[in-house]
């Protein structure tokens, strides 16, 4: 059901949250996460969305996203519906519209895959004590490829029921990536669910997968203009970051394209605030019900806003405390 064109109201909020990005962002360090919220009302219904382009990852700036959002809001109030082109704005607005229209299911997947760097002892301790499905995500590519391989092998050896998602963010040449694999015992390699983007080029990453038997996933590649879903692609998974991708419709079509090819689609964070993250948990439960999403980034932030993540002990800042633009 679409909202009637009369009785519409809208607010836009601007916010900043101190953040310690740790290993999540590599060289692109930021100390403050900034963004916008849109709040749409029609009759007695309400929908929220988060628009927070990620510096170093989004092509658009916050200023550009804000201009697009304010312009769209004016048009929506007068009865228009068409989404802006900028991915962060299209994503946040489409979430707000989906909430308003009741098309974003409430059921959420609040499981996360704990995210960390290659600090063996910490990781082994944390995983040894974990219950249920043991999957962790480890950022590699910081301390030399061979070293990373040794660490990964050690963790797979120490925690016999762990599965790892690894992320190299295109750090390695093919020969470095092969050095990494060389240090992981072949029978442990199947417990690497995937490694995201091991090499600088897609073709090298594919050679790495063929030569080592280690599953690879596309993250950055998925958002490049020459990327296509291809049934002969050796990659086992794709990482979908909605803030960097666009509308819910586009997210849905990528998740469906992956499923048709038998690839795993993983909904993942672009360091959204708790409002956006809880919506990503709902999107994951809806579109990728058999896959734990990659949303372990809330604890990098100083506090939550508007909506709390269940079990989080971070302070929750309500809408009334945020700066309202309209
Ligand atoms: O995917 C996850 O599990 C966590 C999110 C994450 O790693 C990330 C977060 C922001 C920007 C880039 C990345 C990345 O995948 O490299
Ligand atoms: Mg990644």
From TrEMBL:
Keywords attached to this entry: Lyase, Magnesium, Menaquinone biosynthesis, Metal-binding
Coiled coil regions in record: none
GO molecular function terms attached to this record: magnesium ion binding; O-succinylbenzoate synthase activity
Cofactor: a divalent metal cation
Domain Mandelate racemase/muconate lactonizing enzyme C-terminal: 120-215
Residues at the catalytic site: 139, 241
Catalytic function, reaction form: (1R,6R)-6-hydroxy-2-succinyl-cyclohexa-2,4-diene-1-carboxylate = 2-succinylbenzoate + H2O
One GO-annotated biological process of the protein: menaquinone biosynthetic process
Known EC number: 4.2.1.113
The keyword Cell inner membrane appears for this protein: no
Biological role stated in the UniProt entry: Converts 2-succinyl-6-hydroxy-2,4-cyclohexadiene-1-carboxylate (SHCHC) to 2-succinylbenzoate (OSB).
SMART domains linked to this entry: MR_MLE
Organism: Parasutterella muris
First-tier enzyme category under EC: lyase
One Pfam family here: MR_MLE_C
Recorded family membership: Belongs to the mandelate racemase/muconate lactonizing enzyme family. MenC type 1 subfamily.
Xref: PANTHER family: O-SUCCINYLBENZOATE SYNTHASE, O-SUCCINYLBENZOATE SYNTHASE-RELATED
Gene3D superfamilies, sorted: Enolase-like C-terminal domain, Enolase-like, N-terminal domain
UniProt-annotated binding residues for Mg(2+): 167, 196, 219
Pathway: Quinol/quinone metabolism; menaquinone biosynthesis; Quinol/quinone metabolism; 1,4-dihydroxy-2-naphthoate biosynthesis; 1,4-dihydroxy-2-naphthoate from chorismate: step 4/7
Protein name: o-succinylbenzoate synthase
């Amino acid at each position: 059901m679409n909202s009637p064109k009369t009785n519409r109201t809208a607010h836009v909020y601007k916010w900043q949250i101190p953040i310690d990005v740790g290993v999540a962002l590599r060289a692109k360090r930021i100390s403050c996460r900034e963004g916008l919220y849109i709040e749409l009302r029609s009759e007695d219904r309400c929908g929220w969305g988060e628009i927070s382009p990620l510096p170093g990852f989004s092509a658009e700036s916050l200023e550009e996203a804000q201009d697009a959002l304010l312009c769209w809001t004016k048009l929506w109030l007068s009865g228009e519906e068409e989404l802006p082109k900028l991915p962060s704005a299209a994503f946040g607005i489409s979430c707000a519209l989906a909430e308003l229209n009741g098309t974003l299911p409430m059921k959420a997947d609040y499981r996360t895959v704990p995210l960390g760097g290659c600090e063996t002892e910490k990781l082994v301790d944390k995983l040894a004590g974990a219950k249920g499905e043991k999957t962790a995500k480890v950022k590699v590519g910081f301390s030399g490829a061979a070293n990373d391989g040794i660490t990964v092998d050690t963790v797979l050896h120490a925690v016999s029921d762990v599965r790892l998602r690894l992320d190299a963010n295109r750090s390695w040449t093919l020969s470095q990536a092969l050095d990494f694999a060389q240090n992981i015992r072949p029978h442990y390699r199947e417990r690497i669910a995937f490694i995201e983007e091991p090499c600088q080029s897609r073709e090298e990453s594919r050679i790495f997968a063929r030569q080592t038997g280690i599953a690879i996933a596309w993250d950055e590649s998925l958002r490049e203009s020459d990327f296509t879903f291809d049934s002969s692609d050796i990659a086992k998974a794709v990482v979908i970051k909605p803030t960097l991708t666009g509308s819910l419709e586009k997210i849905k079509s990528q998740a469906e394209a992956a499923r048709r090819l038998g690839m795993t689609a993983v909904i993942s964070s672009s360091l959204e605030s708790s409002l956006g993250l809880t919506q990503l948990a709902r999107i994951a439960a809806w579109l990728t019900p058999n896959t734990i999403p990659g949303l372990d980034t809330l604890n990098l932030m100083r506090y939550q806003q508007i909506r709390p993540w269940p079990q989080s002990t971070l302070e929750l800042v309500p809408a009334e405390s945020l700066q309202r633009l309209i």
